[in-house]
Amino acid sequence: MNKRPTEPYKIRGVEALFGSESEPSASDSQTLALEQIVLPSYHQPRRHFDPISLEQLATSIQQHGIWEPLLVRQQPSNPSRYELVAGERRYRAAQQIQLSEVPVRILTLTDEEALLVSLEENLYREDLNPFEETLGILDWLAVRVGVSVEEVKSTLYQMNNVAKGAVNQNVLVSELSDAIQTGFEELNLISWQSFVSSRLPLLKLPSEILEALQNGELAYTKATAIARIKDEKLRGEILQSAIEQKLSLNQIKEKIAQLTKPTQFSIANSPKGRLQDVVRKVSRSEVWKDPKKWKKVEALLVKLEALVESESMSGSEGSQPEETQGDTEA
């Protein structure tokens, strides 16, 4: 993934719509009563607002105020209300500390323009999780190119197949793929190839993992590791442990290895495998260091040895008549 710009982010959607010279500046901002601002009817890229992060932002606003004005547009149906275009975290933090008014920049935007600006503003903020960013990029491309999200996904998969030489590209797909590729270059967040290989698979994750990822309870790398577990019950147990115990990626991988190992033995259902597994566990536990436990183990070993010797003797006696019979026939 490409590195995000280190300079303060300038909303490219606004610049593209108004031009670099006529773009509203910070001095054009004004204040609005918080109760006059309403959330948009279309969904925002951000699905989850981390309570701790929101609390920190609220504290910062309380101490230093809101440095970057919220972007709003006037509602055509109700001129006294303003629809939030960008800055939902600041809006929610202001609500949390019960601010009466906030700084805003009022823009004149169509529905499509408002959605583009909103998506861009959110995509260039680092605190979107990979799932939210994936959905945001798909939404942005769909609006930018003028097709549905499903068509964007389908075209991306076709582009990937063409790149691999699996299929030939027709003219219509070629035009759409060129537009999508240009879109990725404009965003400069991630290449379309990396998006197909590492981001689109997120949309196919099991529902419980997708929910945890969407709610910010699980990192992207941890989610993909747990998703590889085929057993639903085991996957659920590891997912719960990862969230509750805040396990690292390495700890999750170790836990998966530990819990899937017995499963492999049970699938094989081999007596020899079970015996070897018990011996390994006894060796690792160093049970002989505990006198009480070792006494019990020793009693079991005596019985096991007696059983093995008994079986060995009965096997030898059983073979004797066959040898005798063989001599007689000879």
Task: Explain what this protein looks like in three dimensions.
By secondary structure, the chain is α/β, with parallel strands linked by helices. It folds into 4 domains: about 10-125, Alpha-Beta Complex (Conserved hypothetical protein from pyrococcus furiosus pfu- 392566-001, ParB domain), CATH 3.90.1530.10; about 130-205, no CATH class; about 205-270, no CATH class; about 270-310. Helix content is about 60%, strand content about 10%. It has helices spanning about 10-20, 50-65, 90-95, 110-125, 130-145, 150-165, 170-185, 190-200, 205-215, 220-225, 230-245, 250-270, 270-285, 290-330; strands at about 30-35, 35-40, 70-75, 80-85, 100-105. Strands 1-5-3-4-2 form a 5-stranded mixed sheet, sandwiched between helices. A hairpin with a 2-residue loop joins strand 3 and strand 4. The longest helix has about 40 residues, at about 290-330. Mean pLDDT is about 80; it is low at about 1-10, about 15-25 and about 320-330.
Topology:
Blueprint: H1 12-18, E1 30-33, E2 37-38, H2 51-64, E3 70-75, E4 78-86, H3 88-96, E5 101-106, H4 111-123, H5 130-145, H6 149-164, H7 171-187, H8 192-199, H9 207-214, H10 220-227, H11 232-244, H12 249-268, H13 271-285, H14 291-329
Parallel strand pairs: 2-4, 3-5
Antiparallel strand pairs: 1-5, 3-4
Family: Belongs to the ParB family.
Region (Disordered): 310-330
Biased composition (Low complexity): 310-323
